[in-house]
Amino acid sequence: MLIRAGYEIGFMAFAQTPMVASLILRPERVNDLRSTHLVLNDRGVVGTDYCDTYGNICTRMTLPTGLTRLSCDFVMECDGRPDRQPDNAPIQAVEELPDDILMYLVGSRYCDTDLLSSTAWSLFGHIPADSRRVNAIVDFVHQHLTYGYQYARATRTAAEAFRERVGVCRDFAHLAIALCRCMNIPARYCSGYLGDIGVPPMDSPMDFHAWFEAYLGGEWYSFDARHRVPRIGRIEMAYGRDAADCALTTTFGTVQLASFKVHTDEVSEIDVPVHSPLKLVA
């Protein structure tokens, strides 16, 4: 299966403004590319890439005064199967976890585990200590929160989402991650593309998506409290403890979002030549 994805995002800067963008694919997905993958802009801005603490590829640039549009358009291959399921994989004892996994057990900026621990154990403590406990958390969050763009708030934490019972995909992910960590299940935040492939199209504009992964039986598995069911065609851009580590863009000055378009669609080899550069939206 081939998926064509990308974006065009416009930023209005009122002075020269440094920016860090996390808009490049995770290194693990590079071998799946079937076209070029370039982050372009219409102002001739030169960017430099670096690898952050979590293995994400980030781009540093300085936006000039005025409107700058970033764009990307690429094709990659997907196996066409829904998210891999853990089949009752066990929750590992904390003392057996690898050192680099431990940071995904503790609270973070948006996953305030200290406020949710007693709630988590009262809700899920009776469920077997394996992937069934994670699925129970996913089911709970899916039912507990009402989704809607009108509920978006950049400062909402997991505990606030639990109390307010509303949110967008990042809030679903944060609450599920926090509840997992409360139960000593390592969980990390994921951002990337997820198109309406194999499911009825959503009645809303295409956007980037947030979900989470849980570490079970020595492996990471994808879970999605917003959609609840396994999905086809996830394209990962960033991993981290929460959205603070995976922000699409971080600006160090006053910048307004002027435009925002994302596309993620299944295509055939006839539609887009494999191994051929794509014409980007200008």
Automatic annotation (TrEMBL):
UniProt-listed SUPFAM superfamilies: Cysteine proteinases (SSF54001)
Domain of life: Bacteria
Pfam families listed in its UniProt record: Transglut_core
Domain Transglutaminase-like: residue ranges: 161-227
Stored InterPro entries: Papain-like_cys_pep_sf (IPR038765), Transglutaminase-like (IPR002931)
PANTHER family per UniProt: BLL5557 PROTEIN, BLR5614 PROTEIN-RELATED
Name of the protein this chain belongs to: Transglutaminase family protein
Organism, as annotated: Sphingobium yanoikuyae
Lineage: Bacteria, Pseudomonadati, Pseudomonadota, Alphaproteobacteria, Sphingomonadales
